[in-house]
Amino acid sequence: MRLDKFLVNQGFGSRKEVQKLIKAGIVYVNDVPVKDPSFHIDPNTDVVEIEGQEVEYKENYYFMLNKPKGYITATYDENYPTVMDLFSAEPIVNKLFPIGRLDIDTEGLLIITSDGVLAHRLSHPKWNVEKEYFVIVEGDVSDIDFSKYEKEGIYLKKDKYKTKPFRVKILKTSFEESELLITITEGKYHIIKKIMSALDHEVKYLKRVRIGPLTLDEDLDVGEYRELTEEEIELLKRYVRM
């Protein structure tokens, strides 16, 4: 890989910006200063340093975001802030994108990455990736037999569409409202709101807490993010057989 491309990929600026760094003589490869931007390196074995600081090589980046309400799940939007605005301090922000989507008024777990293969597999219906949501709905749901929907889904009359099977665990229920965990394997627009509306219970609050084997870190406040650990990345890749 060219040295200038390597530095661009690691977030040190545009091609022109990193070429200036290299020509300034502050970039070293294996303890030797290199001023040629086209110099080829092996990013897996060569040690690259800028002013004495080693540049860590990462082929891809993986983040867990606790998405807040009011943000669009997109890389750009003319009318609303996007989840990528929360990553504006990251030098590699232009390489990142969200996997799947959460509605503007939905909170919770969102994976942000540069790995297109993983994104495709986690999003594709073929892999039946489970997505679990904490849901608060209006009214008492104790009279609903949710078990039948685990086998056959539910028909949405307004959409003329039958959902895939889904699971519901009742955490708490009362006359005023109920708290549920709902697990789905599809990503159709407003699917949980439509399911609960078909059952005559409107959704008051929605938060995604799990994607496949990855659970939202309870230490992440709304709007905060962190990099995934190597173990978490490996769990996701094994889940979709990468």
Write the layout of secondary structure elements.
Elements: H1 3-9, H2 15-23, E1 27-29, E2 32-33, E3 48-50, E4 53-54, E5 62-67, E6 97-98, E7 107-113, H3 116-123, E8 131-138, H4 149-152, E9 155-156, E10 161-162, E11 167-173, E12 177-184, H5 191-198, E13 203-211, E14 214-215, E15 225-227, H6 230-239
Helix pairs in contact: 1-2
Keywords:
single chain, 242 residues, alpha+beta, Alpha-Beta Plaits, 9-stranded mixed beta sheet, 4-stranded antiparallel beta sheet, 6 helices, 19% helix, 27% strand, elongated
The total number of structural domains is 3
Strand fraction equals 25-35%
* Largest sheet, strands/sense/barrel: 9 strands, mixed
Strand element count: 15
* CATH homologous superfamily annotation of the largest domain: Pseudouridine synthase I, catalytic domain, N-terminal subdomain
Instruction: Give the ordered list of helices and strands.
Output: HHEEEEEEEHEHEEEEHEEEH
Question: At the first level of CATH, what is the class of the largest domain?
Answer: Alpha Beta
Average pLDDT score: 95
Task: Give a written overview of the molecule.
The protein is α+β, with helices and mostly antiparallel strands. The chain folds into 3 domains: 52 residues, RNA-binding S4 domain (Structural Genomics Hypothetical 15.5 Kd Protein In mrcA-pckA Intergenic Region, Chain A), CATH 3.10.290; 92 residues, Pseudouridine synthase I, catalytic domain, N-terminal subdomain (Alpha-Beta Plaits, 2-Layer Sandwich); 82 residues, Alpha-Beta Plaits. It contains 6 helices and 15 strands. The strands form 3 sheets. Strands 5, 6, 7, 8, 11, 12, 13, 14 and 15 form a 9-stranded mixed beta sheet that branches. Strands 2-1-3-4 form a 4-stranded antiparallel beta sheet. The protein is elongated and about 75 Å long. The mean pLDDT is 95.
